[in-house]
Specification:
Layout (H helix, E strand, L loop, with lengths): L3 E10 L2 E11 L4 E5 L6 H9 L6 E6 L2 E4 L12 E5 L10 H5 L8 H14 L15 H13 L5 E5 L7 H18 L2 E5 L3 H7 L2 E6 L2 E6 L1 H6 L4 H6 L4 E7 L4 E4 L2 E4 L11 E6 L4 E3 L6 E10 L2 E7 L5 E7 L9 E6 L4 E5 L6 E4 L4 E3 L12
Parallel strand pairs: 3-8, 3-9, 6-7, 7-8
Antiparallel strand pairs: 1-2, 1-4, 4-5, 9-10, 11-12, 11-14, 12-13, 13-22, 14-20, 15-19, 16-17, 16-19, 17-18, 20-21
The protein binds adenosine-5'-triphosphate (ATP).
Adenosine-5'-triphosphate binds next to helix 1.
GO molecular function: ABC-type ferric iron transporter activity; ATP binding; ATP hydrolysis activity
Organism: Pseudidiomarina taiwanensis
Keywords: ATP-binding, Cell membrane, Ion transport, Iron, Iron transport, Membrane, Nucleotide-binding, Transport
C-alpha cells in the first residue's frame, strides 16, 4: 500500500491537451474515484499513473518514488501498480489458481497456493482453484480478475470501469464487496467509473473531470452537498440550477420566492446568480404559496421523483414517499427547506459557491393558494 500524489499533471496527445493540470492525493489505503463525461481524460490519467503515458507537465509520486515527471519515468513494471480494466480478459486456457497467481513470478509454490486460497476466500469463491474461466459467471470472472490484480500485493491498484459489463444489480453488490476487499488488503486504489452510485458506494475521495481538468477532488458527501463548480453541481446527483437576481436589500428574488442569506450580502444589487435546488430541498406542503404542476413522476423505490413546473420556463425536482402517489397534471404546493445554500455567479462558474447556514425564504410576494377547482 502506498500514497499517491499527482501534482499539476498535464498530458498532451497529438498536440491536443487531454489532461490539464490535475492535482490530487490519495493517502495510504484510500479509495478514489474519477467521474466525468465520456472523453474527459479519465483513462488517459490512469495510463499516465501506470507509466504508459508521458507527462508534458507536473509529476506523479507513488509511495516514495516520483515515478513520473517531464524528464524521467519509472518503467510501468517497476511501479508496483496493478490494473483492472473493463475488458478484464482472464487467460482462458489457465485455471483460476493459475490466473490469480500469474503475476507472482518470484513467489514459491507454497506462497502462491496460500495467497490464491486467501484471495478466493475473500472474494467469496473458496475452492474454485481448478475451475476454468468459461465455467464462471461474468461477476465471478470479474472477482477473479480483481484477485489476479491483488495477488502480487501492488502498491496501488488502478481500475478502469471494472464493472461496466455487468448488470446494475450485480454492479452495486460487487462495488460494496470490492470496497471491503480493498480495505481488508489495505490497498490504495483509484477507480474510473461513469456510475455515480458506484463512486459513492466505493470512494473515500472522488472527483469530477471535465475537458481534462479535475474540477473538484473531495469526499463524495462534499461533492454532492458542496459542489464548488457549477458543472459539478450539474453532473452529480439530481438537481436544478435556478436563476435569481440580488436585490438592493441583499435578498435574492427567485422563482422560489425571496431568499435571504448572509452569503448574499457582499454581492452587488442587480447581480444575476444561480443556485442549486436538490429534490430534497423542497417538501410537498398543500398550504404553501409556492405552487407547481406535476409534469412527470419517476419511481425510485422508497420515493417518487417528481418534475414540477413552477411556470412555463422553470422546472424543479422533488421527492415524495412512493406510497403517496401524486398524479401527473395535479397542482401541488411546495415549501423550500434548504439546509445550506450553493450559489454561483451566473457569468462564471466559481465563487461565491457554497455557504453554510440555511437560507430563509419568504413566500409573501407569491399569490395565496386557490382552493382546488372541482
Ligand atoms: N492515443 C490517442 N490518440 C489520440 N487521441 C487520444 C488518444 N488517447 C485518448 N485520446 C483522446 O483523448 C480524449 C480523452 O480520452 P480518455 O480515454 O482519456 O477519456 P475518458 O474520460 O476515459 O472517456 P470514456 O469515459 O469514454 O472512457 C478523447 O478525446 C480521446 O479521443
Amino acid at each position: 500500500m502506498s500514497r499517491l500524489e499527482l501534482d499539476q499533471v498535464a498530458v498532451t496527445i497529438a498536440q491536443n491537451p487531454i489532461v490539464r493540470g490535475v492535482s490530487l492525493t490519495l493517502e495510504n489505503g484510500e479509495i478514489g474515484c474519477l467521474l466525468g463525461p465520456s472523453g474527459c481524460g479519465k483513462t488517459t490519467l490512469l495510463r499516465a499513473i501506470a507509466g504508459f503515458q508521458a507527462l508534458q507537465q507536473g509529476r506523479i509520486k507513488i509511495g516514495d518514488d516520483w515515478a513520473s515527471s517531464v524528464s524521467r519515468s519509472t518503467p510501468p513494471e517497476q511501479r508496483g501498480v496493478g490494473m483492472v480494466f473493463q475488458d478484464f480478459a482472464l487467460f482462458p486456457h489457465l485455471n483460476v489458481a493459475d490466473n490469480i497467481s500469474f503475476g507472482m513470478r518470484r513467489a514459491s509454490t507454497a506462497e502462491r497456493e496460500q495467497r490464491v486460497a486467501e484471495l478466493l476466500q475473500r472474494i467469496g469463491l473458496p475452492g474454485y482453484q481448478q475451475r476454468y474461466p468459461h465455467e464462471l459467471s461474468g461477476g465471478q470472472q470479474q472477482r477473479i480478475a480483481l484477485a489476479r490484480a491483488l495477488a502480487p500485493r501492488p502498491q496501488l491498484l488502478l481500475l478502469d470501469e471494472p464493472f461496466s459489463s455487468l448488470d446494475a444489480e450485480l454492479r452495486e453488490t460487487l462495488a460494496l464487496e470490492v470496497r471491503q476487499l480493498l480495505k481488508q488488503e489495505g490497498i490504495t486504489a483509484l477507480l474510473v467509473t461513469h456510475d455515480q452510485q458506484e463512486a459513492f458506494a466505493l470512494a473515500d475521495r472522488a472527483g469530477v473531470m471535465y475537458q481534462g481538468e479535475l474540477l473538484q477532488w473531495d469526499t463524495p458527501y462534499q461533492l454532492y452537498h458542496q459542489p464548488r463548480h457549477q458543472l459539478v453541481a450539474d453532473f452529480i446527483g439530481h438537481g436544478v440550477l435556478l436563476q435569481g437576481t440580488v436585490t438592493a436589500a441583499n435578498q435574492l428574488a427567485s422563482p422560489l420566492g425571496m431568499l435571504e442569506h448572509p452569503a448574499l450580502e457582499p454581492i452587488p444589487a442587480g447581480t444575476i446568480v444561480s443556485f442549486l435546488v436538490r429534490p430534497d430541498d423542497l417538501v410537498v406542503d398543500p398550504s404553501s404559496r409556492l405552487r407547481g404542476v406535476i409534469k412527470s413522476r419517476g419511481f425510485r423505490g422508497a420515493h417518487n421523483l417528481y418534475t414540477i413546473a413552477l411556470s412555463s420556463e422553470v422546472e424543479i425536482l422533488t421527492l415524495s414517499p412512493s406510497h403517496e402517489q401524486l398524479e401527473v397534471g395535479t397542482e401541488i404546493g411546495l415549501r423550500p427547506e434548504f439546509d445550506h445554500l450553493v450559489v454561483f455567479a451566473a457569468d462564471h462558474c466559481e465563487l461565491p459557491g457554497f455557504a453554510t447556514g440555511h437560507p430563509e425564504f419568504s413566500l409573501d410576494q407569491l399569490p395565496e393558494p386557490q382552493p382546488p377547482q372541482q
